Amino acid sequence: MPIRFPRNTLAAFALAGLAVTASAQGTGKLKVGLMLPFSGTYSALGVAIENGFKLYVDEQGGKLGGREIEYFKVDDESDPAKATDNVNKLIKRDNVDVIIGTVHSGVAMAMAKAAKESGTILIVPNAGADAVTGPMCAPNIFRSSFSNWQPAYAMGVVAAKEGKKTAVTLTWKYAAGDESTAGFKEGFEKGGGKVVKQLTLPFPNVEFQALLTEIAAAKPDAVYSFMAGGGAVKLVKDYAAAGLNKTIPLYGPGFLTDGTLDAQGDAAAGMLTTLHYADGLNTPKDNAFRTAYAKTFKLQPDVYAVQGYDAAQMLGVGLAATKGDASKKAEFAAAVEKAKIDSPRGAFTVGKSHNPVQDIYLRKVEGKENKMVNVAIKGLADPGRGCRM
Q1: Contact assessment for residue 369 and residue 261, using Cβ atoms and an 8 Å cutoff
Q2: What distances in angstroms separate CA 80 from CA 45, 86, 140, 153, 175, one per listed residue?
């Protein structure tokens, strides 16, 4: 479909005095800004995203759309208070053509605002903030990962189908946690369940004991939690140490156990999660990706690596259509909207709000893998509530 930028977006371009650079027009190196967490709770996730992105670029001979890639990196520290200054280092100081980032939803919201105002292409390789492909959507903003609603809604559907009638939710009190638990509640209550209590703690606090005591007293049929990185490790271990895993299953989106199983050990055994990626898909594309990633980085890939890889694929699709000219944003967007991305997760398309339309898998922890059980929901599209493009 034809893409028309709203008047306020065009005005922003003029006000910012943004000249179309030689780089943007398809000559010289393409400037790609990586704004990711390279320190703190989410540092391993940032590294995996960068690795995945660079793996795809390297597979294309170091070029996308005929353009050699030049990287600029900023550690966003998962700190929303620093997000605007950090993203402007890439937009205004480094004059990048494309931004890839980030993990933390609060940081991603500031990045989306800056991208919308400046017209810079932004591809979000993790942060699931619903608003990025909802009210903040724009022709130059894309996501290669998920909305917080997608895996959460699927887990709610699964829990209800398993006959669970009551649930407690537990999350950090920030945008991603709020949206994830809301998605679970929607799916669970649609299936006849009831969320009886919603527990939160400040990010990145990991003192769970008081909340686990509340859960033990409430005796729900299930607990749903949104946690990732170091927080997910601590929660799963504390939950098992309290003995709760023996009587009240702990569910979550896949971030609860993705990239964390080595540290969680036996505490995670048998846990069920939902996500758009799983171990053991055993497809030619995924097998090739996993082999190449392990050989290149001496690490096993996870969902974050896949999302970085697919961010590069989406960038490649858009640049191929514009012959490397990043300033042709309408043509870039139209190409991505029509594409079928051949991802390790399974092929996906991009919805009208630029969020993946994708299968959500039910996974079970077996050893150090999140093994696929089945497809929980096929071709799940985010509602894109509030998106006007």
Answers
A1: yes
A2: 17, 10, 21, 26, 11
Q: What would the pLDDT profile of 371-389 be if each residue is shown by its tens digit?
A: 999 999 999 999 999 999 8
The Cα–Cα gap between 103 and 304 comes to 9
pTM higher than the cut 0.85: yes
Beta-bridge mates of residue 121: 98
Amino acid identity, residue 379?
Answer: G
Beta-carbon count within 10 A of 7 CB: 8
Nearest residue to 376 (alpha-carbon basis) of 245, 255, 278, 236: 278
Is the Cα torsion angle 343, 347, 350, 355 positive or negative in sign? negative
> For residue 250, what are the CA distances in angstroms to 172, 255, 277?
16, 13, 19
Q: Is the dihedral of CA 163, 167, 173, 179 positive or negative?
A: positive
- Identify the band that residue 7 occupies on the pLDDT scale cut at 50, 70 and 90: very low
* Alpha-carbon span 31 to 23, nearest angstrom: 7
Closest CA to 224 of 128, 304, 148: 148
What three-state secondary structure class fits 134?
Answer: coil
Cα angle 365-284-343, degrees, rounded to a multiple of 5: 75
Pairing state between β 194-201 and 166-172: parallel
HEC-encoded secondary structure of 38-89: CCCCCHHHHHHHHHHHHHHHHHCCCEECCEEEEEEEEECCCCHHHHHHHHHH
